[in-house]
Amino acid sequence: MDGWEIFVSSLGPLALAGLTVTLPLAVISFAIGLAIAVGVALMRISEHRALRYTARAYISVIRGTPLLVQLFVIFFGLPSVGLVVDPWPSAIAALSLNVGGYGAEVVRAAILSVPKGQWEAAYTIGMGRTRTLTRIILPQAARVSVPPLSNTFISLVKDTSLTALILVTELFKVAQQIAAATLQVLAVYLAAALVYWVICLVLSMLQNVLESRLDRHVAR
Fold first, then answer.
1. How many Cβ atoms from other residues are within 10 Å of residue 118's Cβ?
2. Using one digit for the tens of pLDDT, what is the confidence trace for 80-121?
């Protein structure tokens, strides 16, 4: 088959891998990473110095090292100390920790963007710090953080391609397998690029819809 035929025939397997492996991997990792991000963000604004320094150190390490290195440390490095982690859990762990490091600063900035008067008003009616955070501050911060966190998720979908290097059979790994079998490298990788682009385009459209709905509830 020529390059065009390989391009067309590759789209089906690549799209299937994207929907059944790449997207679930991204969704699971993002959900765990978001939980980590919220926890670390709260540590960053904590009144306890030890918590603030711990959160700062975590963010510094995650943002200061490449995701690929983090993947390799977990999958190839941990077995050297007797801890063997399978490809999928390794991928989820690395991606989640990475999202947590970057997302923490997004969440922290969103929390700090809420006017201080909201805190003061809550304290005036007898609400404590924890209740004020959960009932007043975090809901407002959530709306502010939607655009940057959505961008983080879209980037995460593309970053899952790195997990092919630790034997996760996601979209890019399937592309590698097809390219090796057909020797039509350019056609196959262009097909993979197209599938990634379509997935990210759909996610961007969903992001716009979500932002529009959230804006309806904002006072002008």
1. 13
2. 999 999 999 999 999 999 999 999 999 999 988 888 887 778
Asked if 82 and 106 touch (Cβ cutoff 8 Å), the reply is no
- From residue 50, alpha-carbon distances to 57, 59, 103 in Å are 11, 14, 20
The structure tokens listed for 140 are 């407002």
Q: Give Cα 184 distance to the centre of its chain.
A: 31
CA distance 30 to 37: 10
Please tell me the distance from the alpha carbon of residue 102 to that of residue 38, in angstroms, as a whole number: 11
Per-residue pLDDT tens for 44-75?
988 899 999 999 999 999 999 999 999 999 99
Quote the CA–CA distance of 220 and 42 in Å, as a whole number: 29
Q: Is the Cα dihedral 62, 66, 67, 69 positive or negative?
A: negative
CB burial of residue 182 (10 Å; 0-12, 13-18, 19+): middle
Integer Cα distance of 165 and 94 in angstroms:
13
Angle between helices 138-159 and 23-44 (to 10 degrees): 140
**Amino acid at residue number 212:** S
